Amino acid sequence: MNGRPNIVLVHGAWADGSCWSGVIERLQAAGYQVTAPQFPLTSMANDVARLRQVLTLQDGPTIVAGHSYGGHIMTALGTDAPNVAALVYIAAFGLDQGESLAALLSQGPTPPALEHLFTDQQGFMWQPQDDYVQHFAADVDPGRAKAMHAAQQPIAGPIFAEAMGVPAWKSLPSWYLIATQDQAIPPDAQRMFASRMGATTTEVPASHVPMVSHPDEAAQLIKTAADARTAVPAGRAARR
After folding, report:
1. Which residues contact 221 (CB under 8 A, 6 or more apart)?
2. Is the residue at 206 inside a domain?
3. In the chain, how many domains are there?
4. Could you read off the pLDDT of 88-130 as tens digits, one per residue?
């Protein structure tokens, strides 16, 4: 340990751990121990189990940052997150108890990035390339966006109907990076998530993947959370 918290980065649907590459490079250059594992996206229980598996490998207090559905995974840690010092949401879902992704998304028009999802014979949902490049990663170089699309991990459709338990953000301090040009999670929904969790909030003019198009801002928010929690024992429920 170098006195800094560890960092665990949680990818969302239609992405993988490599989507954090720019953020990882910046955090490692600042001296942080960083892990960005792959998640199966087969069920919320399986994804939370993977996160817990990775957390047990950390040697001290840990900041968990999640993008999109990755925020859903870390939220589902609930009240049992003994070595987690803070949560950082990067254009991510931050549901409350009893809410589901399906119910939330049904409250308004289908976002452009999600309009043409298709489901394979095993029940996994995929992004078509055109929507990925034009809407999901709209402010990323098209060549890079196509490469991200090629590496996407699909998500099991039933996950969208799974209800959230007691959210981890009720007992852990949170930070939130709002992507103001997001075409997957509407910016106003992100503001609502951040407001009700009492998150320290920053906005960036980015698409749904600000950790790719704005890695400086994403890394800085994670470092800000880490700095704020360096002297606080992990697992303490006291809010900021």
Report:
1. 88, 90, 175, 177, 202
2. yes
3. 1
4. 999 999 999 999 999 999 998 999 999 999 999 999 999 999 9
